[in-house]
Amino acid sequence: MEAIAKTLYSIVNSPQFDKEQLCGEKLKLSQAFCLLWHDAKSGDVCGRQCSDESNAGVLAAMLVDLAALDKLEFFKDTKTCVLGLKCDSILLKVNDTKPTETFLDAAIFDKILELQRQNPHKPIVVKDLLSKYRKESGTIALDSLVKLDILGLEIEKCGSHKYPTLKTGISEDLKSQLRAFALDGAEPSSYLRALLTLARCSDSEQIGAPVLRKHFTQEEYYCKKAKENLNALVKTTKKCNCKCNAEKK
Fold first, then answer.
1. Which of 7, 74, 113, 214: disulfide with 201, CB 3.0–4.6 Å?
2. Are 141 and 34 a contacting pair, CB within 8 Å?
3. What is the pTM of this model?
């Protein structure tokens, strides 16, 4: 969870983070994350109930959505740990307690407000938040797409869920933008940069890269450097953030 928390911090403090653009998109970042995670052909969402990393990626995207709405602010707390090493914790602060009137309220914002109410002087550690509330994040965001009639919902006898695609346009557009960046070097928008950075970070923490890998052939992903370009995007976001922080000092 630490890697995802630090990646989230890098995104929202990057000079490329454009709140206005994110708020102007048709879907929240967390909804777009789920569309990339979702298999448009089968309706399956691999690891929806058991993947800590993918669900944490969705929850991190929800926190970025809230940052874009000026509800939350993130900052770094550096302390000296064992053997004199410097340890960073990513913390969050609530800037605005008014509801968003979206699925983000029930998904995580109400929970953050309750944590703040219970311990008003205790900082909220993002890593702990991701660990505690990640489990249902994917399902909540997917259900919000069902309400928009972008996905359907089929519950099978065994209790497993399938989300058949009802409107293909948005999913196809996201996939097209992903491939244009990873294979052709197209410049990503602020929205796409944040989305792919979180998705690749989540994928890198688990076997099989369930969010992004399926959108490429094996040759494209490994030989044509799609994976390499996605990894470079994550590194670039972190470097831009470090440079920006250094300039502030």
1. 7
2. yes
3. 0.93
